[in-house]
C-alpha cells in the first residue's frame, strides 16, 4: 500500500498572473514577469503533513527535487526517490509534460499503489498517461483549471483521503480526466475533452465532482441572474468581475466585452481594465470603494480557488472594510444551486484563517429581484458531507 508522490513544480503559476492557465514555457515566463508564483509544492506539503498526522510511519515513493522530494521532506515523512524524471538545479523548475508522464510510470514500476499528485487538469492528463489502469490516482488541487473529477477538494482533504485509503476506509470509483486547449479557452471557447477514466479514492465531501457546463436551456436563467447583479451595482464603486458564463453575461448587459477567463475591472458601466493579475487587482481595490462579483463553478460548487486565483487571499482581505466580511457578490442560477444536491459552496484561497471567516452562509443573486441563502464551507474542513446538509 505504498503511495507515490508527484508534483508539477509550475502548476498554477498562470492563475494569479491572470493568464487562464500555465501550459507552455512562454506562458510560464509571462506569469513570472507578472508576479506569478506556483504553489504546487506548498500545497503538496500541506497534504502530506495531513497524511503524516494520521500515518507518521507511512512510506512514500517520490521523484527528486521539486517534483516531489522537497514536499515529502517538508512533511517529515520518509520518502524513497525512484529513478525517473528529476528536477535538477541546472534545469530549474521548468519541467515538461513528458517529465510528469515518465515520473508517474517510474513510480508505478517502483511499486506505488496510489499516486498522489499536485497540479491541475494538464498534470492529471500526464499522470494518467504514465500509470497502468490498475493504479489509482488522486489530485492535490494546485492548477488553474481543475475540471476533472480526480481531485480532492483541497490539500488537507487530499491528505485525509490518502490516509483513508491506507486504512482501507476509502473505496475507489472511476473519475473522468478532462483537459482543454488553453488558447481556445482564452478565446472564450471552453471545450473540455475526455482523455482517460481512472480509479480515484472517493469520499463524499472530500473528492470534488467534475465541472458541469451550463446547458443552453439555462440561458434565460443566466440572463436574469446577471441582470440581478447589474441592478445592484452602485455608483463610484469599482467591481472586480470574475470569470464564468454568468459573469460574462453581466458584461453583455453592460455593453462590455469582458474576458471569458480573466478578472476585469468595471466602474459605472465602464471597462477600466481587462485580465488583471493579482497585483493589478490589489492596486485596483485599495484606496476606494470596491467589490467583487463571482459565480459558482457548476457541479463542484467552488467560489474561490478554482479558475479565479487572481482573487487571492490578499485581494479578498483588501475587499474588507473595518473588519467586516469581504464585499463579494455571488451570482448563480437557482438550478446550479439545486444541482449541488445540498453540498455547500466551497472556498480555497490558500489561507485557512480567511477561508474560515468566509464560511457560514452567503446570499446568492439568482434573479432580478431574487436571492437564495446558501451554506459556504472552507475546504480545510474535511468532514464528510451528507447529501441532506443545508
Notes on the structure:
- The structure is a single chain.
- The chain has helices spanning 25-33, 40-54, 69-75, 97-109, 121-130, 155-167, 182-186, 219-232, 245-254, 278-285, 313-318, 334-338, 352-358; strands at residues 3-7, 59-62, 78-81, 114-119, 137-141, 172-179, 193-201, 238-241, 264-267, 270-273, 290-295, 302-304, 328-331, 345-347, 360-365, 371-378.
- It has a 9-stranded mixed beta sheet with strand order 10-9-8-11-13-15-16-14-12, with helices on both faces. Strands 3-2-1-4-5 form a 5-stranded parallel beta sheet, sandwiched between helices. It has a two-stranded antiparallel ribbon with strand order 6-7.
- The protein is of the alpha/beta class and 390 residues long.
- The two termini are 36 Å apart.
- One of its GO terms (biological process) is NADP+ biosynthetic process.
- It holds the Pfam family NAD_kinase_C.
- GO terms for molecular function: ATP binding; NAD binding; NAD+ kinase activity.
- InterPro entries: AcoX-like, ATP-NAD_kinase_N, NAD/diacylglycerol_kinase_sf, NADK, Put_ATP-NAD_kin.
- This is Polyphosphate/ATP-dependent NAD kinase.
Features:
390 residues; alpha/beta; nine-stranded mixed sheet; 31% helix; 21% strand; kinase; transferase; NADK
Amino acid at each position: 500500500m505504498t503511495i507515490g508522490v508527484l508534483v508539477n513544480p509550475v502548476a498554477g503559476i498562470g492563475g494569479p498572473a491572470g493568464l487562464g492557465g500555465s501550459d507552455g514555457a512562454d506562458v510560464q515566463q509571462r506569469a513570472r514577469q507578472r508576479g506569478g508564483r506556483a504553489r504546487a509544492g506548498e500545497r503538496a506539503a500541506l497534504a502530506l503533513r495531513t497524511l503524516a498526522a494520521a500515518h507518521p510511519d507511512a512510506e512514500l515513493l517520490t521523484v527528486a527535487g521539486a517534483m516531489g522530494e522537497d514536499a515529502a521532506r517538508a512533511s517529515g515523512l520518509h520518502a524513497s526517490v525512484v529513478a525517473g524524471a528529476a528536477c535538477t538545479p541546472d534545469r530549474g523548475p521548468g519541467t515538461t509534460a513528458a517529465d510528469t508522464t515518465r515520473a508517474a510510470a517510474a513510480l508505478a514500476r517502483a511499486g506505488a499503489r496510489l499516486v498522489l499528485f499536485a497540479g491541475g487538469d494538464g498534470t492529471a492528463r500526464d499522470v494518467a498517461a504514465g500509470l497502468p489502469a490498475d493504479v489509482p490516482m488522486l489530485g492535490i488541487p494546485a492548477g488553474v483549471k481543475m475540471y476533472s473529477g480526480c481531485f480532492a477538494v483541497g490539500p488537507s482533504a487530499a491528505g485525509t483521503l490518502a490516509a483513508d485509503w491506507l486504512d482501507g476506509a476509502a473505496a475507489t470509483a472511476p473519475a473522468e480526466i478532462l483537459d482543454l486547449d488553453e488558447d481556445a479557452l482564452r478565446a472564450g471557447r471552453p471545450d473540455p475533452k475526455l482523455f482517460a477514466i481512472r480509479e480515484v479514492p472517493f469520499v463524499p465531501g472530500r473528492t470534488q465532482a467534475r465541472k458541469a457546463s451550463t446547458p443552453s436551456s439555462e440561458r434565460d436563467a443566466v440572463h436574469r441572474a446577471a441582470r440581478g447583479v447589474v441592478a445592484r451595482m452602485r455608483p463610484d464603486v469599482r467591481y472586480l468581475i470574475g470569470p464564468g458564463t454568468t459573469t460574462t453575461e453581466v458584461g453583455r448587459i453592460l455593453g462590455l466585452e469582458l474576458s471569458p477567463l480573466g478578472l476585469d475591472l468595471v466602474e459605472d458601466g465602464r471597462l477600466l481594465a481587462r485580465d488583471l493579475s493579482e497585483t493589478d487587482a490589489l492596486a485596483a481595490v485599495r484606496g476606494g470603494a470596491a467589490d467583487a462579483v463571482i459565480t459558482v463553478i457548476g457541479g463542484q460548487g467552488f467560489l474561490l480557488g478554482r479558475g479565479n486565483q487572481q482573487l487571492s487571499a490578499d485581494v479578498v482581505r483588501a475587499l474588507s472594510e473595518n473588519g467586516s466580511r469581504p464585499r463579494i457578490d455571488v451570482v448563480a442560477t437557482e438550478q446550479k444551486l439545486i444541482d449541488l444536491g445540498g453540498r455547500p459552496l466551497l472556498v480555497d484561497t490558500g489561507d485557512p484563517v480567511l477561508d474560515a471567516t468566509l464560511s457560514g452562509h452567503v446570499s446568492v443573486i439568482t434573479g432580478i429581484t431574487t436571492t437564495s441563502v446558501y451554506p459556504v464551507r472552507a475546504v480545510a474542513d474535511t468532514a464528510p458531507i451528507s447529501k441532506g446538509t443545508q
